Amino acid sequence: MRDRNFLDSIMEFEQQLETLQQQFNELKKFVAHMVEEHQSLQTENFHLRRRLEELSKATEGTSEQGEKKSYLDIGEGYDNLARLYQEGFHVCNVHFGSSRKGEDCLFCLSFFNKNV
Ligand SMILES: [Zn+2]
Questions:
Q1: Collapsed DSSP state (helix, strand, coil) of residue 96
Q2: Which residue has the higher pLDDT, 52 or 69?
Q3: What residues pack around ion ligand 1 (CB closer than 5 A)?
Q4: In this structure, are residues 110 and 62 in contact, taking their beta carbons and an 8 Å threshold?
Q5: Assuming Cys at both sites, which of 18, 29, 48, 81 could form a disulfide with 91, CB separation 3.0 to 4.6 Å?
């Protein structure tokens, strides 16, 4: 009788190990996915920062260069930033490029108000 219980316990334990192994594999997949996403976000962030720098320079040069070209650049940049905000990221210089976590940001909104 005691042997029987012991065998049951061993088998139960084996099953728990298998379940744990499965969960661990899921976790590994999840982490791999997160790392991938993190890298692509970093790349995106890098490009966006560079784009913003270009735009800032273009804006600074407005008075010296042709007005029409700069105006177009700013319009395109504005659309990109508006889309970025819609996708859930900050476009304000306080938190630029980080996730809004589903909340509206007053800095971002005031940025848009200034640029409308
Ligand atoms: Zn913001």
A1: coil
A2: 52
A3: 90, 92, 95, 105, 107-108
A4: no
A5: 81
Contacts of 108 (CB under 8 A, 6+ apart): 85, 90, 91, 92, 100
The two structure tokens encoding residue 2: 């005691």
**pLDDT confidence of residue 11:** 95
Rg (CA), the chain: 26
Amino acid at 6: F
Give this prediction's pTM. Answer: 0.41
Indicate the helix (H) or strand (E) that contains 67: helix 67-86
Residue recorded with tokens 């200034």: 114
106 CA to centre of ligand 1 in angstroms: 6
- Which tokens hold the place of 9? 């316990």
Cα 105 to Cα 111: distance, rounded to the nearest angstrom: 10
pLDDT(62) > 70: no
For ligand 1, the distance from its centroid to the CA atom of residue 116, given in whole angstroms, is 16
Q: Which amino acid is at 46?
A: F
